[in-house]
Amino acid sequence: MNREFPEGRDGAENQPVRASDPVAGGKVPHLKLPLTEKLPEVFFLPGDASRLRLFEEEADSFERIGDNREYALAKGSFRGKSFGVCSTGMGGGSAEICIVELARLGVTTMIRTGGCGALQPEIESGSFIINSGAVRWGGSSNFYVPPEFPAVADPFLAVSLAQSCEKLGLKYSVGIGATINSYYEGQGRVSAPGRRPRWGEEQIARLTESGVLSIDMETETLFTIGYLLKVKTANILAVHGNRATDHWLVDYEPAQRSLVKAALETLDAV
Ligand SMILES: O=P(O)(O)O[C@H]1O[C@H](CO)[C@@H](O)[C@H]1O
Ligand SMILES: O=c1cc[nH]c(=O)[nH]1
């Protein structure tokens, strides 16, 4: 039974709410915004909802417009350009919902602004990575297209992000990342004392040998599903730690703040 509308009918429209497309009260089911909402065309997607505060502190104006589950939403402006922010939560499942519902609400450009682990030893914690493409182990996108379908960033958007880093004097690397929908064993971390993360250890070694720069949990989901939904996508990731040197940045807020500045700077070019 639909608890919000006990007879399974849409309270606003008095239409049956369909399980195959549960838009109730004219709102998308997870972001809880009406389909009529006028949103900015460009959205930044951090994983962590608490990072909206960093956008708020850098923006000229900022208005929170949604907060449901892991999805915190806001719209704002920076030097006369409007933008939105929506947290994706962690991993392919929650990112898919965010991307699909934002696209349905008319968002045409989505830039992931997140954190990652670096794989190459020379990449310093606190620096930045822009992925030109990503290995597709994020989970959800496999239900859309076969694994041979590439996950690539919009090249123009990726270049704009690199130019923003240059302008702000931020150290950055550009190249292929891997999205792995598991933080512990999938990324070669110990999930319980004495338990070896065999799959992760082996794959992380192969990715590192192949020159892959980073691992995160959402990028390929955005690149692949975004492409299929005709959304321009790119990412910029702060390096929270390095798996080759085993260095971990305990306080990564300063890096995330610089990342937000670089992301907002890119609004001039999109
Ligand atoms: O810092 P965010 O954007 O959340 O990104 C990274 O951090 C989380 C894991 O700690 C995953 O979401 C991963 O992709
Ligand atoms: O090592 C890391 C750091 C951030 N996010 C990840 O998914 N992995």
What does this structure look like?
It catalyses: uridine + phosphate = alpha-D-ribose 1-phosphate + uracil. Residues 1-25 are annotated as: Disordered. One of its GO terms (molecular function) is uridine phosphorylase activity. This is Uridine phosphorylase. The protein contains 6 helices and 11 strands. It is α/β, with parallel strands linked by helices. The chain has one domain (42-268): Rossmann fold (3-Layer(aba) Sandwich), CATH 3.40.50.1580. A hairpin with a 2-residue loop joins strand 2 and strand 3. The protein is globular, with a radius of gyration of 19 Å. 1-O-phosphono-alpha-D-ribofuranose is lined by residues 46-48, 90, 114-115, 183, 216-218.
Topology:
Elements: E1 42-45, H1 52-58, E2 61-68, E3 71-78, E4 81-86, H2 92-104, E5 109-118, E6 128-137, E7 151-152, H3 155-168, E8 172-180, H4 198-209, E9 214-216, H5 219-228, E10 232-242, E11 247-248, H6 253-265
Parallel strand pairs: 1-4, 1-5, 5-10, 6-8, 8-9
Antiparallel strand pairs: 2-3, 3-4, 5-9, 6-7, 6-10, 10-11
Helix pairs in contact: 2-5, 3-6
1-O-phosphono-alpha-D-ribofuranose is lined by residues 46-48, 90, 114-115, 183, 216-218.
Give a brief description.
By secondary structure, this protein is α/β, with parallel strands linked by helices. It has a single domain, classed as Nucleoside phosphorylase domain (Rossmann fold), CATH 3.40.50.1580.
